[in-house]
């Protein structure tokens, strides 16, 4: 029941916002819808926490510790992003960067996107998972091109084409998966249900499954933004509106990784080897290294942080590929920490670029003095994302490192190199922006406090104290997917 | 219908699907491209219906009908309208190095046969031999998207890939569950809506649908 509410609220809000359009009330409805979704998400989580994993809607939906935590995270970040975007988008509208139709699209598609991601997470059917993932892509394509500038259209087209091609590969992988499953489970929709597949994974044909995994890896890997399939990501993040960058980085990449992990569990179960895990580790490590070195060369602030997203998704992919309870626990925690920290960084980046009317890092200066919340928010966000000790990402990176030293010691230097370069690059780039004198063209603007602070406080708490229920959740989830 | 005849018919239709894929790879005119795409959909739709009849899978009739309306009638119609509205009839695209593209296409077909060999061995369906063709269609669609720089061509390549995937589902497993097929069709429809909007945007911004002009977003060293 709660599950149905969780899915229907954003869908209903999307339809409603398509009608409300550019009216004064639209951002408030957007916030209200997301908040209701969040409340439903928490309700669902409580239910799962008390009663354990559950099936709903005639096996169509499946909720366990793994996906319910991502569902809560998705609805939470979408709520805070809606709060942030209220002021941000209104200002963009006043500056004439977005038109009347643009705002209508923005709000409706935002909610549709949330719906698609939640459907992705909660469905039990791997085919429906694919459909929802494609829906999530399609709903954000128009958002990326919202500003209608040549670069925005180029970025959106690239995103559309590359992710379209990528996700087609995933569909082929799904067809192969169905081919193998059908032999064991009989035909019909049941053969695509994750719960059923998982029970019989040992008797699925290993050759077909390893072939399927290559396609699934390429397909969903494109959406996760893994190198060398990442080309769309920096463009889409830097050209789209900032709230969209926040949800793309903070949420969509997670959801795609979630799909990949579910497939990996199946394939490893079937082949009985670490084949799928090894592929994921390779992609993950490559992403970490390439993204870390690319960070150094960036001039555009949003582009830089999108490379940081690639790096962090690389770390999480590496962790899930490595497997084992510790690394998986670290991966789960890392996804959570990254989502919270990265979206808060994008909030401050959005404010900073509005204050300076540019996304070029050379021209952004004096944030500490100009607007302490934006300056310190960005600084703390970067500290969190770089893995400085009191924050949650330090814990997760530490866990992943420990597991690497134990299980794959030869890879440790590469992992450390990537982390160190990214750390140095981030601070070298951010330092000049936050310190220094206020440039004359900087404008004072009202900013949204709540989203930034809320996210940072949560990441901070994650670092010093991991609540019991959360660690219990992660342990159960890690048990499921190790 | 006799199984033997059915096998012959499906192989025959598979050959035609592949042939249209190769045709699209070299076609320079926009209308010609759309028409080839419509033909591919048509062969696919008939093939699906035959498989549905032989295997006694009635949900394949729905898939077949869906392909017919969506990929043979609706999408080609939309593309025709867009081409006329945006006055693209005269935009003849230069295809770089046709012989080379064809050779790569042939290599992809061989590669697909090699790749699907394990699946073919395990399968007991009458359609098992067409899976390689389906994968080849997917790959050729992808090749088309890479080698050609016109927005319409890229979209048709995208849709041809979708055709290949649909074909793969039919030949490997007698079609995916209906809910999945309906969902995929819905996604294609939404994608059509979106690229329609995009054609107009790209046209007004770049004054042509040649995507080769989009090269502002690059890594600067």
Unreliable spans of chain B: none
The number of helices of chain A is 19
**Number of DSSP strands of chain A?**
2
What is the first-to-last residue Cα distance of chain A?
30 Å
Structural class of chain A: mainly alpha
Strand order of the largest sheet of chain A: 1-2
Percent helix among the residues of chain A? over 70%
Topology order of chain A in helix (H) and strand (E) letters: HHEEHHHHHHHHHHHHHHHHH
Strand content of chain B: under 5%
**Class by SSE composition of chain B:** mainly alpha
Most extensive contact: A-B, 50 and 47 residues
Biggest sheet details of chain B:
none
Rounded Rg of chain B: 18 Å
Mean pLDDT of chain A: 91
Q: How many strand units of chain B?
A: 0
Morphology call of chain A: globular
List the quaternary state of the chains: heterodimer
How much is the radius of gyration of chain A in Å?
Answer: 21 Å
Spell out the blueprint of helices and strands:
The complex is a heterodimer of chains A (482) and B (221).
Chain A: H1 2-20, H2 26-51, E1 54-56, E2 61-63, H3 65-94, H4 100-122, H5 126-144, H6 150-185, H7 194-200, H8 206-224, H9 232-239, H10 242-271, H11 275-295, H12 301-322, H13 325-356, H14 367-370, H15 372-386, H16 392-407, H17 412-434, H18 449-464, H19 468-481
Antiparallel strand pairs in A: 1-2
Helix pairs in contact in A: 1-2, 1-4, 2-3, 2-4, 3-4, 3-10, 3-13, 3-18, 3-19, 4-5, 4-10, 5-6, 5-10, 6-8, 6-9, 7-10, 8-10, 8-11, 9-10, 9-12, 10-12, 10-13, 11-12, 11-17, 12-13, 12-17, 13-15, 13-16, 13-18, 13-19, 15-17, 15-18, 16-18
Chain B: H1 3-26, H2 30-55, H3 59-85, H4 98-115, H5 117-122, H6 131-147, H7 151-173, H8 178-206
What does this structure look like?
The complex is a heterodimer of chains A (482) and B (221). Chain A is built from 19 helices and 2 strands. Chain A is mainly alpha-helical and 482 residues long. A two-stranded antiparallel sheet of chain A has the order 1-2. In chain A, helix 7 packs parallel to helix 10, helix 13 runs antiparallel to helix 15 (372-386) and helix 13 crosses helix 19 (468-481). Chain A is globular, with a radius of gyration of 21 Å. Chain B has 221 residues and is mainly α. Chain B is globular, with a radius of gyration of 18 Å. The mean pLDDT of chain B is 88. Classes of the chains: A mainly alpha (482), B mainly alpha (221). At the A-B interface, helix 5, helix 6, helix 8 and helix 9 of A face helix 5, helix 6, helix 7 and helix 8 of B.
